[in-house]
Design a protein that fits this description.
The chain has about 375 residues and is of the alpha/beta class. It has helices at about 5, 30-40, 85-90, 115-130, 150-160, 185-195, 220-240, 245, 260-275, 275-280, 290-295, 310-320, 345-355, 360-375, and strands at about 20-25, 45-50, 55, 75, 95-100, 135-140, 165-170, 200, 255, 300, 325. α13 (about 345-355) packs across α14.
Length: about 375
Amino acid sequence: MNISDIVNSPEDPILEPGPGVVDIHTHIYPPSYMALLRSRTTVPMIRDFEDAGSRLIILPDENDPSTPSIARGRPIGADFYDIERKLAFMDKHHIHTSVISLANPWLDFLPSNEGATVAGRVNDDLNAMCGQYPGRLYAFGTLPLSAPTFQVVAEILRLKELAHVRGVIMGTSGLGSGLDDPSLDVIYRALEKTDSLIFLHPHYGLPTSVYGPRASDYGHVLPLALGFPLETTIAITRMLLSGVFDRFPKLQVLVAHSGGTLPFLAGRIESCILHDGHLTKEGKVGGRRKIWDILNKNIYLDAVIYSEVGLRSAAAASGIGRLMFGTDHPFFPPLEGDKEQEWASVALNTEAIRKLCAAPSRDDLAIMEANARKVLRLNS
């Protein structure tokens, strides 16, 4: 039995091949954002070191003066900001269309009185980049979440007028208190009413103390492999527990990295809700939407999980029709040898999809391009 017999509904339309592969998880820092980072003297910022070149420092603990410059943040080369490099990467990996988005830390760090202006500038930059390559580039816009709420809503409405924008990217902090913050309701309402998809992406990770005293011996493996996915899982679970999807039943969220650990832990989360005395006493268990309903109607997952095992869990949780291919470019580049070689991070995700779907197949086509083209209206 093919997995589509389990997770696809019989009324799903027959899929026809489009122009080619769609990458919905791919980042860039446009010119105005690069200028902002270079102008700053506090994190986040770009610093130039004589022995380490330009480095992007986005977390406070990355800027410890006792840390060697070669270990501070990450090197930031042309792949992070040059749109021509993005197109070259796409061509190398046979990707026809990319939905580009600003990488973390977005605009969370800006003073309230600067957020809206910078967001407008960055979003216009992204839209202009896409306009240079019609049909090949689209974008997720960025919201000025540090700005007054009315300015955030105004930018949501303005983004709908930009020809190449297809939703917004958002981190897990929201307005500073997480995605279960009631103050976000007006923003969720605006996103729902404008049919604007949220691309939910991690940034803050977990407290470094959870990784133990020898964490530095393991490079960035613990925060990237575990911190990011768990940050995402906690954020989306807080949305579930606080009733965001009950209040906004049409809100759509695309969760990065195949949902973190959400697909694997969904059953445990649901069981804990049902057995929680506090939630029961507060009347928060009866009448709510179950996690499985939300996974199938409100949650999309990218396929950036690097193995068939994890991808199978994502497909079983949300369905083949709610999975979309991504690369996470320009992160996870080859470390050695020819930088123009095929990126292993791309090959691993592609191989996982092919194994899951017994490619070439209808399911393979859905994940690699058709789902994104339909959900994000990439042909319009």
